[in-house]
Amino acid sequence: MASSEDDGGAASDDKENNNKKRGKGTVATAWLAFYNIAMTAGWLVLAMAMIRFYMQKGTHKGLYRSIARTLKFFQTFALVEVGHCAIGLVRTSVIVTGVQVSSRIFMVWFVTSSIRQVQNEESVVLFLVVWTLTEITRYSYYTFNLLHHLPYFIKWARYTLFIILYPLGVAGELLTIYSALPFVRRSGMYSMRLPNKYNVSFDYYYCLVVIMLSYIPLFPQLFFHMLRQRRRVLHGEVIVEKDD
Fold this sequence. Notes:
With about 240 residues, the protein is mostly helical. The chain is built from 8 helices and no strands. The termini are far apart.
């Protein structure tokens, strides 16, 4: 009798645990669907705002200032994705996601928004258009995938458009940082010179130079990772990657 009761209790515990996991899975899926729908809508709003501005003004000058607040909100809110990775809601590297999100936030807050002299550069429009197209496609892909109704066109766009958009986006970011260098050097913004009470020296100009140089090793790694993902998703190739 004791054995039978123990078995029944174990089965009951297993059932309860499975129900909890199922409940957590449902909540997680609902949250991720809501998040991705909201982010898709946000970047669509940005796209419409950019199109409307250009149609009304006929120039890109002033475009960044007109969308800066919305851009800052949605790009900064993407930090939530690092949390998704950290707690296991999505199977993506925390480091990779953190680098990608933080680099975007850095471009928005510490380059383009902070250095007004570069806001009318054509390179800013370049990376804004690339980011917008990329994010609309990416978040749409995640949304439809979560809902189990993924159109092939969305999947194809997610794993094909980056071949052109990724290099263009990197070019826009690098050209924008390069355009900012003379203004940073003259103003000494965000820099600390010795002597000071903290006994620390920091030169934002050289920080930007180092960041530009960091694109050299990082861009090929991320780009070829996406190419491997494309072969796996679109062509069904089995990709065996070495463990780090």
